[in-house]
Amino acid sequence: MGSRVADLRLEMRGLIDEHVPKGFLSPFTDDPADLEVAQRFCKVLADRGELCIAWPEAWGGRGASVWEQTAVREEMWAHWEPRGAQYMGVNWVGPILMRHGTPDQQQTFLPMIAQGDVIWAQGFSEPNAGSDLASVQTSATRDGDGWRINGQKIWTSYATMAGYCFVLVRTNRLEKKQQGLSIFLVPMDAPGVEVRPIMAMFGPHHVNEVFFDDVWVTEADLLGPLDGGWSIVMEVLAFERVGIARYARDERLLQWAPVALGDQWDTLSDEIKARWARMLIHARRARLLAYRIVDMQQTG
Question: Which of 126, 235, 240, 271 is flagged as catalytic?
Answer without folding.
Answer: 240
